[in-house]
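Hey, sorry to bother you again with one of my protein questions. There's a protein on my desk that I can't quite get my head around. No rush at all, and the record is pasted right below.
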Amino acid sequence: MSARIHPHKLIARACYAFRNVPPTEPKTEILFYDGHCGLCHGAVKFVLRHDRSGNAFRFAPLQGQTFQSRVPADQRAALPDSVVVLTEEGSLLVRSNAFLHILRRLGGGWRILAAALRVIPRPVRDSVYDFIARIRFRIFGRRDELCPIVPADLRARFDP
């Protein structure tokens, strides 16, 4: 006579099998940047240099196809022309909130810096951000190429 196994024990056995499955990698978010801005190119290079995981962000210019296809036209019109982060949840972060989010995702000391800067009220942070955005071309110049010059192994992280 064969012993009958109760269904909840089968589920428990099946769930046990999943304990050996490695955790999934965090989803990559997209950092959209002004492809003509020298400061934005520098910011992208900074993120590439400090991204320990190597997959915290993908990069695409605000002037490119990826931005056009991933962000609806009605939302694009209201966004600044400097840096925008599309999170894994589908939220668009702009100005100082985008900057702080980037620092948090980089981890380590950058996460601590982001927490310290977060105590500054957002309107004040955004005013500083907007001021820098207004003068960025005068200080850091304009670029003709949309993507910063990076080593070949990092180019795979850029979308059109």
